[in-house]
Amino acid sequence: MKFNKQLFSACFLFAAAFAPTEAAEPVPEEFGSCTVCHGVQLKGNPGTGAPRLSGLQTWYVENQLESFRMGWRGNHSADYTAEEMRAVASGLSAKQLKKAPSYVNETVSSLSFTHTDGDVDKGKALFASCSACHGATGGGNEALAAPSLLVQSDWYLEKQINDFRNGLRGAEKDDASGQLMAASVATLKTDDDINNLMAYIVHLQQQEMK
Ligand code: HEC
Ligand code: HEC
Description:
The chain is mainly α. It has helices at residues 5-18, 32-38, 58-69, 80-90, 94-106, 120-134, 154-165, 176-184, 191-209. It is built from nine helices and no strands.
């Protein structure tokens, strides 16, 4: 067949248009299953309820896998997504448990935003109580086991805040860090509070990306 330059460039353009914007790194075999729910490059998938994992702090991932395995998280039939992750965490091998925190931390994906309304200034006032543990700009504090709020998707942060408020997370007696956080959401009285707080957290995330 004669080389057809036009056809070649058409194919090239087609491929470029549909190429993923983030080059997917090959997934290590032992973590292939994570991407099924957590999405390509672990960027999160609101459809499965599985959050973004890329960039999470290693110690936080370690804590959370333990929390699921101990049944501190995923212990309520009203929270079926957490139940799903609890089942996954319980089935992990020693090798997977050891390697998961750094694998997760090192994957790269961009943070996207779904939150659209809320009053940033009112949210900022509410955030004053959070900053004691999560840091003035939300970067987290390992000594207090409080994670960064800058690397996680807004829809998931909001679900977790409501889970803490509704006793679905942080309610088990041996879960010291979870309890610490659960006690801290008592300052949030209404859904408007949550909405305004989320607007401010998204604002902090967008500042961080600048
Ligand atoms: C069957 C789907 C599914 C699979 C497979 C899965 N996860 Fe999850 N994972 C979830 C869901 C859903 C949540 C959110 C739970 C909630 O709503 O509280 C979650 C939450 C997490 C969290 C907590 C994140 C946070 O910020 O609170 C970590 C860490 C995690 N998963 C790690 C992994 C790893 C590592 C793998 C692969 C070994 C994996 N998951 C496989 C569904 C899954
Ligand atoms: C007394 C310390 C403390 C305060 C104050 C506090 N938190 Fe936390 N927060 C924590 C700890 C510790 C965790 C981790 C809990 C765990 O390990 O399950 C956490 C977890 C979270 C999570 C879950 C993140 C994820 O990826 O799963 C969210 C969201 C959160 N905090 C938001 C807030 C907000 C918003 C405020 C202010 C209203 C706040 N926190 C105040 C200590 C605190």
